[in-house]
Specification:
Elements: E1 4-7, E2 10-13, E3 18-24, E4 33-39, E5 46-51, E6 58-60, E7 68-73, E8 78-83, E9 92-99, E10 112-113, E11 117-122
């Protein structure tokens, strides 16, 4: 069992940057692939990025590749999402998620979710 709490959302102008953080509870943090997803009202939740338990492998959606960077600090049970060159279409509620699997390149199978944090990018 793992509990996730996101922070760092807010309002930013297009072209700006934000850094999201996710704090995880539990003693086996390195056993979990961590991911970030986002959702706009009326649309399905969309995969954004994932990172393997060791932090050595990452995977991104095409829409954020080259602009967003996922990282994790296993000593602190934290995962972050650095978002640069933000666009209005990045506006969404962003969710941190975890799954006890090493298949970081698969966007399904996440069992644990945070409450979400709003990111709004103005044009």
């Amino acid at each position: 069992q793992v509990q996730l709490v996101e922070s760092g959302g807010g309002l930013v102008q297009a072209g700006g940057s934000l850094r999201l953080a996710c704090a995880a509870s539990g003693r086996t943090f390195t056993s979990y692939t961590m991911g970030w997803f986002r959702q706009v009202p009326g649309k399905e939740r969309e995969f954004v990025a994932a990172i393997s338990g060791s932090g050595g492998s990452t995977y991104y959606s095409d829409s954020v590749k080259g602009r967003f960077t996922i990282s994790r600090d296993n000593a602190k049970n934290m995962v972050s999402l650095q978002m640069n060159s933000l666009k209005p279409e990045d506006t969404a509620v962003y969710y941190c998620a975890a799954k006890m699997s090493n298949l970081y390149y698969r966007t399904t199978g996440y069992a644990y979710w945070g409450q979400g944090t709003q990111v709004t990018v103005s044009s």
